[in-house]
Amino acid sequence: MTQSDQPVLVVLGGGPGLGLSVARRFAREGYLAVLTTDSDEGADDLAETLRGEGFAAEGSGIDLTDPDDVTRVVKAVGERHGRIDVLHFNPSAWREKNPLELTVPELLEDLTLGAGALLPALQAARPYFADGGRILVTGSVAADKPWHRAASLGVQKAAVRNLVTSVDAALKPDGIRAVAVQINGSLAKDGPFAPPLIADAMWAAVTRSAEEWTPHVAYDG
After folding, report:
1. End-to-end distance of the chain based on CA atoms, in angstroms?
2. CA separation (Å) from 218 to 59, 99, 152, 161, 183?
3. Domain count of the chain?
């Protein structure tokens, strides 16, 4: 393992919207962006988009419902580059079922992807974090104002926000911090909730000083 001079961002649950915009925002600051999706092909397509813009990027398929696969992928990034500087946890499961239709196995499956997968990712990344490392989580207004027809989403977002509080407290003594940026609106192609503007807010959230740090930041557009 050799230590790269270039900082490394890992995006879990990447996509052509917010995940790609966050990767691009960090790439503009000199980061190597590693984008993961549920297939190698999809991840490579996202990475190729950034490479076409002149940035350093890689793609990797990942099964976020399988802790062993999450561990494998994140560990491989750390071993390849000798470092992970920012871990961006972006996934959520959308299931349009209200509480009278949602089953316990379905809820737990969604919760595994939208919150639980953060645990193996964090544990695999930890040996490659140094002082100044950051965990960045995409939060949602659904944590406070869930839509009853997609009941599991609110549970995912409330759970992952709560988990970030514990992650931040556990890592703070080592100079590593975690933050959930809660997006209090719906993503849109244009306007204040367009992905590039949210990506700017996420960059600002992870670059705050220790004195300014809080584990939760609200983005109100």
Report:
1. 42
2. 29, 27, 21, 12, 6
3. 1
